[in-house]
Description:
- The complex is a heterodimer of chains A (113) and B (116).
- Helix content of chain A is 0%, strand content 53%.
- Chain A is mainly β and 113 residues long.
- In chain A, a hairpin with a 5-residue loop joins β7 (64-68) and β8 (74-78).
- Chain B has strands spanning 3-5, 10-14, 19-21, 24-26, 33-38, 44-50, 56-58, 64-68, 73-78, 87-94, 104-106, 110-115.
- In chain B, the strands form three sheets. In chain B, strands 2, 5, 6, 10, 11 and 12 form a six-stranded mixed sheet that branches.
- In chain B, a hairpin with a 5-residue loop joins β5 (33-38) and β6.
- The interface between A and B is medium-sized, with 26 and 24 residues.
Amino acid sequence: DSGVTQTPKHLITATGQRVTLRCSPRSGDLSVYWYQQSLDQGLQFLIQYYNGEERAKGNILERFSAQQFPDLHSELNLSSLELGDSALYFCASSPSEGAGEQFFGPGTRLTVL
Amino acid sequence: AQSVAQPEDQVNVAEGNPLTVKCTYSVSGNPYLFWYVQYPNRGLQFLLKYITGDNLVKGSYGFEAEFNKSQTSFHLKKPSALVSDSALYFCAVRDIPYNQGGKLIFGQGTELSVKP
Lengths: 113, 116
């Protein structure tokens, strides 16, 4: 158990809908990262927050947004969902922005029908 | 831009034999390299990292990795494979510059299958 929690574990929804994925980092970790894992794209970085501020963006779609709250938990919002958004979404955390490892949560499996 | 490549989609070994999962990298500057393992329906588990220092890095579950700067490689190794090592293995490089976001860039993954 990495100490990173994600809810929900599974999410099934329809095209055009909006969903919110939640992540609680390890106690004391200030950085939160979101990744998407799909069969065709592999593991792709989406976005990073550090102590409430956005720090880096990857190939995140405009329909996706995220934020990190004062208690350091983070939410990833996905809107106008398309079939191709079906994937595993991982949250990871690390104490700082340094060169150390990131600790991954169990993921949220999103299925868009 | 930083990148990693895992040239083998799948590696098959017999239990008790040594295993190697290959990774090559391309970075500008000093590399920060990682290995993660993913079991079915689970998140990624950290195995080991190379930041600086000894070229042979020891990690969890008996795994180790050898950093080779001249060959730009960071191969994962284990002297004696177990059936329970069967999983998906990812090599990753930490994006730089330091303190301006630290996203991981992953290879495509290598499926390791250890047969009894």
